[in-house]
Amino acid sequence: MNKYHYIEAPFEAPNKIDWNKTIFLGGSITGSWDWQAHATAKLKDHFNIFNPRRAKFDVNDKGVELEQISWEYQCLRSCSILLFYFSHETLAPITLFEYGGALERLKTVSYLKIYCAIHPEYKRKNDVIIQTNLIAPQIMRNLSLDLDQTIEKIIKEN
User: Fold this and answer.
1) For residue 13, which of 71, 70, 63, 58 has the smallest C-alpha distance?
2) d(Cα 32, Cα 34) in Å, to the nearest integer?
């Protein structure tokens, strides 16, 4: 039996969870391949996974929209590890917004670890690299153009 949990939006974490071994899968959703399923398969034996990509999401339901955004907001502030992935199929404006906020939180949250993978053909790749270097140069070592390498690094370091 796996000691780690998979939590998909909008569900809550179990009462007894090791928050030091939690990872939030932040990144492209709308219009991109299901990279979260790929990452989950590799990370599930090592971490409690919080996945914002849900099976059913009605973008026209304002209640569901509020629920989703609130869930992501809480998870981004609760998980000890944040994995951001910028897929090449979309610009992912919300991911850019969340990533920038997370980089700023690094200045005040000592337990937070951020990893970022960028598809080589992501249209704003250089923006993400430059902004990361300007805001949080200490995590440039956690930035990669390969999702699988980033996942392996997370497992090895945590």
Assistant:
1) 71
2) 6
Q: Give the global pTM.
A: 0.95
> Do 53 and 25 form a contact (C-beta atoms < 8 A)?
yes
Q: What's the CA angle centered on 99, arms 2 and 126, to 5 degrees?
A: 120
Query: What whole-number percentage of the chain has pLDDT above 90?
Result: 87
Distances (CA, A) of 44 to 51, 54, 137, 155: 11, 17, 29, 10
> Given strand 22-27, what is the order of strands in its sheet?
6-8, 48-51, 22-27, 81-86, 113-118, 143-144
Whether the Cβ atoms of residue 147 and residue 39 lie closer than 8 Å to each other:
yes
Q: Any alpha helices (H) in the chain, and if so which ranges?
A: 35-43, 62-78, 93-105, 125-135, 147-157
Q: Which residues contact 47 (CB under 8 A, 6 or more apart)?
A: 4, 21, 22, 23, 81, 154, 158
Query: For residues 124 and 88, what is the distance between their CA atoms, to the nearest angstrom?
Result: 9
